[in-house]
From TrEMBL:
The lineage of its organism: Eukaryota, Metazoa, Spiralia, Lophotrochozoa, Platyhelminthes. Keywords: Signal. Residues 1-18 form the signal peptide. This is Apple domain-containing protein.
Amino acid sequence: MWSLTVYASIIVVTVVLPFSLSKCPKNFTDVGSKVCLIVIKQPSFYCDAHRICDQEGRNSGQRLFMIGRHAHKLSVNLFGLTIFHTGINSFLENLGKLRNGWQVSEPGYISDVLNATDIPWSLLEPFENGEQVVSFLSGGLYAKRQSSLFTYPVCELSNVAYPNKTGVSKFNRNYPRPLASNFMELDLSVGCFRQTTAASALACGLKCRLLDECFTFYFNQQRKDCRLSLYVDSRLPKSLQNTPGEWMRFRRKP
């Protein structure tokens, strides 16, 4: 298997204590099974919603992410709101109307896929074809194009510490599985990418390694183009499919 190993030249110490309390922290809602949720009332589009959860957690010395696996615990009465973002998405594969195979943005579960019974889908959902995100609307979950909603994120407290920035990080080309294409099939979504430049795949990988929220990077040697996928594992936007050069994908291994 093609792999890229990145060594850190800068030592950064980050301490996040795993969540092990029997009760949720102040301002969080305990929904059972040690799941603690909070709504951040900053309306935003999908990628900014991820960033808001992440930043809110850092500000309080915790690690937060957009709810995914525990979306079944949401209800219209929980926070007095009827529309929320979730971290559930199909950025790695065009699932169309399938209810299986959707991914989440939860640390430790990025590479896992959900079963149909894990998601309280609304009747007839998913309805559209194409890569999409899942939003909570009036009591159920709906698949939507990425830019369709400007609303609040529901953030969940993580018990997974931030990645270790010392030692060795491994990035593999075919992890968690080989993809038929590095590009999305339709333009309903574009993922959450940061564009930068790098002299090599190794240099691009180091940039990803130094960001806790970076799970995957793509590198185009001809263009020296480095794309960092933040908060979610994603394929590249369809709009990049005809750009010159070969795009190589590398996914951080847990």
